[in-house]
Amino acid sequence: MALVQALQKAIDYIEANLLNDISTEAIAKQANVSPFHFQCMFLIMTDISVGEYVRRRRLTLAAQQLLNTDHKIIDIAYLYGYESPEAFTKAFRKQHGLSPSEARKGKGALQSHNRLTIQVNLKGASPMNYQVVERDAFQVVGVKRECLCGEAGEVNGVAEFWMEANANGTSAKLAELMNSEIKGLLGITDNYNEQKDTVDYWIAVGHDGNVPADFHELRCQNQNG
Known about the structure:
Elements: H1 2-16, H2 24-30, H3 35-46, H4 50-68, H5 73-79, H6 85-96, H7 100-104, E1 138-148, H8 158-167, H9 170-177, E2 186-193, E3 198-206, E4 216-220
Antiparallel strand pairs: 1-3, 1-4, 2-3
Helix pairs in contact: 1-2, 2-3, 3-8, 5-6
């Protein structure tokens, strides 16, 4: 839930500063993550980039001003961050399919992009069939990150790690390496460090054969064997 709240705080910051020159660094600071991680997180959760969201919202509000005020088109263009009427017209037409002057005359429909609100749907009330399976030792390859353990037993930073792996193509590369009986992308904890209260968290796949240079190898085995 903290991740969702952080993202919503960043979106609220965007909305409060749509008329200002805002940077990805300033937006990411609201969520207490790096600009890279914030852009990955935003893209995965909304399916658009931060810059595209800002552009769509500004052009939505600009269209509303065209319809509801008698402000000059050039003044609206400058208000929403466009340095020239030509640049504003080009961006406006790309989103709405008509020019600002045509929109003011009511010659076509406008495309509205509403303010984002992050909602979480909790699932799990329906029964799920599962089974515990014991396996002989097997090899996985993947990427790992040292993560701090929380007071309630959770591993901090895992959600961000998965978002980064999905966004930068690591997950897709791992999926191509999967060639064992162990199917799917795996989340594995290993190497608990009691002194630092950390574990190595792996995003990996079952793989038999040589280990590509970009990945690490982990041998998983039955602790009772």
